[in-house]
Amino acid sequence: MTIEYHDIKPWGRSFDEYVRMFSLTPADLKRKILGCGDGPASFNAELTGRGGNVISIDPVYRFSTDQIKQKIGETYDDIIRQTRENRDKFVWQEIGSIEELGRIRMSAMAKFLEDFPEGVMQKRYIPGELPLLPFDKKEFDLALCSHLLFLYTDNLSLEFHLRSLGELCRVSKEVRIFPLVDVNANRSPYVDRVIDILRMKKLDVTEVKVAYEFQKGGNMMLKIC
């Protein structure tokens, strides 16, 4: 079967997953980090609790805690159903079952929901979205974009990807994007075209294998300096 997401789903991942998805070192975690499209991930909450410096930006932050919680509930059944129907496209090792996946994701999103009100007051959660970000040039040391660019190849155009990556490079000294596959675990056709165009602009672009794979073949990130 084919997974068909007609819009972008609020689906949060944990601090530990971010560390592995983006090969984050202890030194990386001390940098000023932008999480772009973080949604209800617990990365901000957990890294802040460890003394880190992170700002997350996502359009879902326009909503209240209760509204986001409702959106998560509406999304949960759809994603779990599609994952069950397409379970052959995933690697069931560290996450051993559909039920465990649900528990891990809901645990991460519960941490986000608990932190969200305070994080909004502290301006750690900012409503906004690519391809225009409300930040100054090179305001961040490291920008992370998880499960948005390349994943939604059918929803987001090549032009959107190029504008978004240009904007991420404007506001951050280094950019990391994960994964490089789409929702059906196929390498996005945009990846090679994006790499060629960015290299023509004299940017240092590399594909890096990471110690994380849930979607089959989804164990590479794009690193742009």
Task: Write up this protein.
The chain is an alpha/beta fold and 225 residues long. The protein has a single domain, classed as Rossmann fold, CATH 3.40.50. Helix content is 37%, strand content 14%. The chain is built from six helices and seven strands, in the order αβαβααββαβαββ. Strands 3-2-1-4-5-7-6 form a seven-stranded mixed beta sheet, with helices on both faces. α5 links the parallel β4 and β5. α2 crosses α4 and α3 runs antiparallel to α4. The N and C termini lie far apart (37 Å). InterPro entries: SAM-dependent_MTases_sf. This is SAM-dependent methyltransferase. It comes from Methanosarcina horonobensis HB-1 = JCM 15518.
Beta-strand percent range: 5-15%
Using the alpha-carbon principal axes, give the shape: globular
Number of helices: 6
Q: Mean pLDDT, nearest integer?
A: 93
How far apart are the first and last residues' alpha carbons, in Å? 37 Å
Please summarize the sheet with the most strands.
7 strands, mixed
Number of domains: 1
Proper CATH architecture: 3-Layer(aba) Sandwich
Query: How many beta-strand segments?
Result: 7
**What is the CATH C level class, in words?**
Alpha Beta
Radius of gyration: 16 Å
